Amino acid sequence: MAELHLHPDRFLPTDPATRAIARQLLDAVEASPIISPHGHTDPRWFARDEPFEDAVSLLLWPDHYVLRMLYSRGIGLGELGLKAADAGPVETDRRKIWRLFAANYFLFRGTPSRIWLDHAFATVFGLEVSLDAQNADHYFDLINARLATPQFRPRALFEAFNIDALATTEGALDPLDHHSQIRDSGWKGRVITTFRPDDVVDPDREDFARNLDLLADLTGGETDTFEGYLAAIAQRRLYFREVGGATATDHGHPSARTADLDPGERRRLFDRVRKGGGKAEDAELFRAQMLTEMAAMSVEDGMVMQLHPGSYRNHNPWLFKHYGRDRGADIPRRVGFVEELKPLLDRFGNSSALKLILFTLDESAYARELAPLAGHYPALTLGPAWWFHDSAEGMMRYRRQTTETAGFYNTAGFNDDTRAFLSIPARHNLARRMDCAYLAELVASHRLSPSEAMETAIDLTYRLPKAAYRL
Amino acid sequence: MAELHLHPDRFLPTDPATRAIARQLLDAVEASPIISPHGHTDPRWFARDEPFEDAVSLLLWPDHYVLRMLYSRGIGLGELGLKAADAGPVETDRRKIWRLFAANYFLFRGTPSRIWLDHAFATVFGLEVSLDAQNADHYFDLINARLATPQFRPRALFEAFNIDALATTEGALDPLDHHSQIRDSGWKGRVITTFRPDDVVDPDREDFARNLDLLADLTGGETDTFEGYLAAIAQRRLYFREVGGATATDHGHPSARTADLDPGERRRLFDRVRKGGGKAEDAELFRAQMLTEMAAMSVEDGMVMQLHPGSYRNHNPWLFKHYGRDRGADIPRRVGFVEELKPLLDRFGNSSALKLILFTLDESAYARELAPLAGHYPALTLGPAWWFHDSAEGMMRYRRQTTETAGFYNTAGFNDDTRAFLSIPARHNLARRMDCAYLAELVASHRLSPSEAMETAIDLTYRLPKAAYRL
Amino acid sequence: MAELHLHPDRFLPTDPATRAIARQLLDAVEASPIISPHGHTDPRWFARDEPFEDAVSLLLWPDHYVLRMLYSRGIGLGELGLKAADAGPVETDRRKIWRLFAANYFLFRGTPSRIWLDHAFATVFGLEVSLDAQNADHYFDLINARLATPQFRPRALFEAFNIDALATTEGALDPLDHHSQIRDSGWKGRVITTFRPDDVVDPDREDFARNLDLLADLTGGETDTFEGYLAAIAQRRLYFREVGGATATDHGHPSARTADLDPGERRRLFDRVRKGGGKAEDAELFRAQMLTEMAAMSVEDGMVMQLHPGSYRNHNPWLFKHYGRDRGADIPRRVGFVEELKPLLDRFGNSSALKLILFTLDESAYARELAPLAGHYPALTLGPAWWFHDSAEGMMRYRRQTTETAGFYNTAGFNDDTRAFLSIPARHNLARRMDCAYLAELVASHRLSPSEAMETAIDLTYRLPKAAYRL
User: Is the pTM value of this prediction over 0.95?
Assistant: First the structure.
């Protein structure tokens, strides 16, 4: 059996002198508290603080990176225990599911999933051998036994992970009951929400009309006029701030397109999408206009705005029909920012009151569009390497392609953006290592002094994410 | 005169400790047999086993990489001995042509052509000085003398190169006489064909109508209805498998667009392109539909499907008119896969019975589209770095940009895709070196254990290409 | 206070053996004369040879890289002393402006601006501490004192910088008075102009019609017919060659689109744009046609043609309205070359008489389009990494992504493209270092011999730019 050992110099540069510099930088930031300003963990965990069920439901099922890789190699989601209408037999023996995963763990060689999982196995569960078919049962039994103990409850892990602040993400209609419960519980962990209004902003959703009715009910207002609709959204934003501690909004749009129509056009566009059955391009235009409306609200209420464009959601209709969202079938595509953001920037780009954090799945935009935009407009900040690019190579490409034009100080520090709670320390640890690796290269090639690199490493780890999210 | 020396550590990482790891990996795979599942060597060579003519006709004329570089620096193709109607004088003195090439060999510094040629010069011909104007005659005489000996005949070289299987590529109408001859000869070398139906699938070709008539004649069927046409193609696929040992098809389309029209639309579209003179977009739509038809046939007959999109063929009309195809004037352009492949994937993407190997000339698609697609759909596999990117830097970019999302096991190993027979060992050697270099970096930065890297190196070299092509 | 020390090995590879190779190469080229064939320094400086005013007006105001970074972090251009109509208060105390810059100098960590400025501070002014808030006054006083001395006048610096030839850029209507004055002065410094006809070629400019009237006046011809217009332009090209010593033209177009309309269409298109108020797409088509016309003239008169496409100029309308051009609000966007250049290349691509140097802000085109085009067409040469990519990482990406397909000898050597005179030695020094770093990697990985690398380093530094610009 192979040893599971997290080498203290993992991911650092291979050149010994450069590695030594990186090591010094890392020593200063590795133990820093975690700021997690954007993610998708379940607030119910921290509200109820019940034990996690078992290894499969905690580590496999919520992790679309794991599901997608296994699925790509011909392993059916039913074999992994996921239930579906009309999609064949479902494995219910959790141990068998874990064994299947273990036997295929080699597929993750060279991927961030492997890095994150090994980190959790070693640091959270104290495992000392590398997962494979032979030790699958040892893993399964040990993990399940640990999860049943008090030190492995959500709040205990939150504290053990040294998390300063953790943001979850909720839709505009969410009552935020879990966040209320957390606040009322007297527990000191800072779990805040993020306002994600896609459900009431995207006319392409089947439930759009119903959601607007619910929005009216929830706010005691009306959503049959554009003015009423905007007022209802503004009210929900206030609710998210007051009840959920939100400091940010998040917008997951197919493209980065924005619009700034004149008042009459806005109203007519709203009327068409409110009723349904308008022109084909109405939905895209409405989403575009709504980004500008959200920016306007952010200028007023101070909420940081995040834009996550460019994912083709649910690309696989068969999988979507049988297994639903977030199973690994979201595929990135080309995204443009220069023309697309212009209407919004024409109105608010010169305002320091707006803080718009941009993400991309299209890395070709880093050096060409995003760094030049963020290196000019006061309103813009670059979010970190996102999703598929939240990886050793991905983070290095991000720094190499953005720093020379945007600098370090137009970036937002790290986001883990995960629903896999146990991967949070691993992801932040990797981000710190890659930042230190990059900074060490700058020092070793005499582009930055050691003391500047040290200050920058601390800024990237702690000061910048706090400032970017107004935490 | 400069020494020609293939350093045993060439292309490996420069950091000494990382290089030592790469060296160990390479020792395990460098001498492995060559699997060459996609290429363009001439089957006549292996059927007839006649001596190659001389250095110029073997090493220069079939190599569009060499022609394009010389041409780009103002050297006319006539000066290189290529004949053309109305394009000026043609040099017929082969020695003079070779001298011209030798005097300009410095142009290839830093290019893969230089790597491939030096490898052939040193390992095939035993040359010990680096080619330049001074030793041009020495090269010319020595190469020509060797080519006249039995050890330099095609089959002897095939065996000396340790080739396990070599695939050529033939059009749908090819009688496969050379392949029959090879099989009947009793020679043990495995030379198989690949079914490339572009000539009967692409309505933009001037000979499309004539090719469909020939297809009807050849199969004894008819190609005036869509059903008859598809049946005729299926029959040719069977012929290619039975007579030529084909396990794969290959499709060289301008884009990756696919379509899945309803039966009536398909028939009407076929009727229009069969007659000619339909709508402007018919040709693209027909090619798109035919990719889906080919996938359907692959699901039936088990042939692996390869898609090579994104080359603007014959970009230079003057050159095409005078010198024809494959002279170095094919230029890559942007390719999208996400929307384009969706119709085909909607039908067959979840099927492990389909094996569709994707290539690209647009590297921006690696991390953005191809790795995410291959890391989700069971039907998809990533082909290796292709054409212009079949190079030291190109292969390293490929691994860096695909591994973290697709892993190693959704990739197909290496293809040489060459018509330059003598470059085959060089190309595979380089691919092995770059894979070992990449794996060594993962080991040196503690992302992979040495034993995992070793197993992966062997898989990439041998097991994956055999599996990907069902060899 | 931190020491300001330009380490002799800065920017070279971190691996010690590779660094030693790079060092040897650099020793051979670091002191070579500077060829600066494309830039935007002010010819008035060399004509009048008056002292530069002070640190702020010399180092901050003309440097849009510096302005954009400060602006992006919320520092108003008024705070930096830039005047604007209706844009709030303007700081007039130069010392206060310098202090503001110094206090924010940390923003430039990791950027080329930092590299260029530190180089000028150390080598031009002899400063020995790194700029920060504490030593702002020391910097300000020392720089201003030096600028008042004869050794810091423009011509003295030009000579101290060891500049062989420096090209400025002037619009088609410029009288070239400063160039005449330089020539008449008897000073030996070679300052030449470049013909940049955008003002008389781009119908989207508000002053287009007026410029054509001026062009008629200036040439004594007429610009109301296409023939007269072309003749007037040809005459200005002659004037630029004879009076300004120009060897090149430069074209800053939104896209790389070219056209080759038939004579009747050309005339009708000209008539429409001459009168104004034609079709919306006329301007783009006219610019496209004019690139081909310029190529035709270049074939006749031997002027090297430069194409700089893909910048969205003045993306920020508020900033443009108040502060005008070149304040850091030009944003790159996607550029295609394959279809776009085809009409021009169909006419002139096979001609060695045309020399068209291509630049890009869209690095995804390097390996996909530009290197393949330049590695085939005799008329094409690749310009260096441009603008935002004129940086350590940017230049390394350029070599890595272009060399394998285009080789070194289809590239033009380095351009500084700057209006920041004091940054010229820094930029050339950095380019030499990055080329030597890249070549050293090739040597260390046994892809190139040491003597070939040495010859190539010298070619890239001196021979190639001289040849590319026919200097």
Answer: yes
